[in-house]
Every structure is written in C-alpha cells, then in structure tokens.
Design goal:
Number of domains: 1
Bound molecules: iron/sulfur cluster
Number of strands: 4
Helix content: 25-40%
Strand content: 15-25%
Distance between the termini: 6 Å
Radius of gyration: 16 Å
Strand order of the largest sheet: 1-2-4-3
Largest sheet: 4 strands, antiparallel
Length: 179
C-alpha cells in the first residue's frame, strides 16, 4: 500500500486522531458479545450485528487474517450529550468520513475490512428480518463491538479516551487491511 499517499489523504480529513496497530493486539471478548445480546436492541436485527456477523471466534479468525489496522476517531461537540437524538445525529458524519478513508485506502492499493459504529442503517428494513442476504455487503460496515472487540484497551494503550469533554461525542472506526 502507498502509505505516503494515504498519510497525505488522511491529513486532509477532519479526523481527531488516527493511528495504526496490529489486529493480533486486539482483545476479543465474549463479555462484549454478552453486552450485545443483552443490552442492545439491534441484536439479531441486522447483518451488521451479532449473531449475523458470526461467532466471536469466527470474527476473531477473520480479523486476524489482516496484518494491520488503521484506527480513526472523530469528535463532535453537542449541546447536551444526554440527548440521545442529538448525540446519534453526529454519527452520519463519522460514517461518511469512514467511507472516505476506506476509499482512500483502496486508491492506495489496500482492500480494507471496515468496522464502524452502531448498527447498519443503509436500508430502512434490514434484509435479515425477511431471512434474506444483505443487499449491500460491499457498503455495509459491521460495528467494532459486533466482532467482540473490546475497544477500551485500544484507546488506553494509545493515550485516548472515549470521553474528551462533557458534551463531546467520540466515534471510532477500525479499518483492517493487508500491507
Ligand atoms: S445494507 Fe441493508 S441488508 Fe445489509 S446490513 Fe445494512 S440494512 Fe441490512
């Protein structure tokens, strides 16, 4: 991959931070999957979420098939972070930037496996509800947590926090690739 071209492109995007790591250093946890299953309303309702994405072990195996991971983060200030609607409204901009980074990586010669935020919202009704395959598998991004990835150690080891300020929304995406 052309790292110089990638760096140039990344520097032109409104990213709060980005860094590289190795997928082998990611922590895959059944505990994260348990939270998906018991605390998320999207469980079983999207191909971007468990159990549609496969078992944690299958997700881990797939992720470890890549040798590099680009982690990107955006931050947005909102009037009131407890206003869920306002907080979630900042997600779309992050998803667009994630797509821009993925496209940039393709232009640089990589084929990233993109993990992003929350559940997929491309279709108004996910095909999984009708027992059909995903309509846009090339566009859909499973969320980071869907793979069983515990993102907290990733942030801690790189000196980052989920919460930069009282009303600052932080979004994270991971783009795994082969160098
Ligand atoms: S692209 Fe459509 S069918 Fe595929 S996961 Fe997203 S909502 Fe579901």
């Amino acid at each position: 991959m052309n790292r110089e071209k990638l760096e140039q492109g990344l520097s032109e995007l409104p990213l709060y931070v980005y860094f590289y790591m190795e997928p082998k250093d990611l922590e895959f946890s059944q505990r994260v999957r348990w939270i998906c299953e018991h605390e998320c309303t999207q469980y079983g309702k999207s191909w971007a979420c468990p159990p549609g994405v496969g078992t944690v072990e299958a997700c881990r195996e797939h992720c470890l098939g890549y040798d590099k991971c680009l982690v990107i983060s955006t931050v947005t200030e909102v009037a009131d972070i407890t206003d869920i609607e306002e907080t979630l409204s900042t997600r779309q901009a992050h998803e667009q930037i994630t797509d821009q980074v993925a496209e940039l990586m393709r232009q640089c010669g990589a084929s990233p496996f993109v993990l992003s935020t929350e559940s997929c919202a491309i279709c108004s009704r996910c095909a999984i509800a009708d027992g059909e395959p995903c309509r846009f598998p090339e566009k859909m991004h499973p969320c980071v947590e869907s793979q069983g990835i515990n993102v907290i150690p990733v942030l801690e080891e790189n000196g980052l926090e989920f919460q930069y300020g009282q009303n600052v929304v932080t979004w994270i995406s991971m783009l795994l690739y082969r160098e």
